[in-house]
Write the structure tokens for this entry.
Amino acid sequence: MLIDQDGVLVSNSSPRLKIHDPLLIPGNEQVDNMDCNVKKYDSTGMFHWCPAKEIDKVILTRSEAAMTVLSGHVVVCIFGDVTSALIGLRNFVMPLRASNFHYHELKHIVFVGSLEYLRREWETMHNFPKVSILPGTPLSRADLRAVNINLCDMCVILSANQNNIDDTSLQDKECILASLNIKSMQFDDSIGVLQANSQGFSPPGMDRSSPDKSPVHGLLRQHSITTGIDIPIITELVNDSNVQFLDQDDDDDPDTELYLTQPFACGTAFAVSVLDSLMSATYFNDNILTLIRTLVTGGATPELEDRCRVAQLALLDGPFADLGDGGCYGDLFCKALKTYNMLCFGIYRLRDFNSSTPSQCTKRFVIANPPYEFELVPTDWIFCLMQYDHNAGQSRASLSHSSHSSYASSKKSSSVHSLPATANRQNRPKSRDSREKQKYVQEDRL
């Protein structure tokens, strides 16, 4: 028997038990009290688990969904019927229920689609917590408004009917129509008084409620969205060329390669061909699969404290604000790694960040692995890998820092770790900058 960091008694051979607040959602009140108050992991410890639920227990009517006032959730628009081939929604849900998320961080998943189709998929998903179903169609604006799609953290559009159409240009018609339908919707700003607090990828110990301790407290609360264009959407496509129909303001040539188009760069389109590319890359480098698994589920180790997770750091304010206005990515990389045990690997930048006129566009694109001298702007978000428990990671870093300082004092030699963490770049020794840059370049090559 072991005691984990939260003071919970656990067993090496059984799932861990933790006590959490019940999820108060109409339609789910019939779930056993055990399921509401005691949360578990599956036998592998890799995913959150709950006792099997009947599908009737998770079905929401339109009025119940509207009364719930969902926010910060994931809406999955699925096209399919009783004759459609199963696409395996379990594989979609599993990464969202990975145990490298704390239970309170799990985003509620709401499926909007045919009940006949979802009933066939449910047998593989009935052990996942915080999942609901709204029978309807993704093309119905009433259904979309009922699940508060304007307050969701992400809307995913999938189709199980794509293989039933012979004409390749029409295979993605349902997904494209649903995407364009959502983008053309208008919403009442009165819901903005709710100020839904969307945590996004923000990890524990780094939420916005603790600005003095959180490197990511600069991420703003989710504001009310008045137009569907600002709703974060990911649309699945079978035919790469159909990406041209997703963005009405995109001037890309129809013959442009998928990876050069705006929807792909902004993360609003996911094509099946991307999986083919990953399979090819895995054939030549077997470490690719390990990297993908780390990014998606935090890795394969059952030791939660040693697992990592993806986070987003805001440069608008907080500990990294001094680097957000003209600082170098390499300096940010070194500071995040030494101070917070975080490994930065990309930038999430506004599309119109250098526009001379104020822009209402919220679209962002990804810059993967920038060079050391790459200049940062205050509106940037940084993708990084961090430890499962940020506070534990900081404690280990402090312990390592203290040990190093004690050793340096015994040798009567100066240590760079003795410098204040808030020291300006101008006050740092040039030799240290050169060493950090050399170290960054070496890690980049690895």
Notes: The longest helix spans residues 390-410. The mean pLDDT is 74.
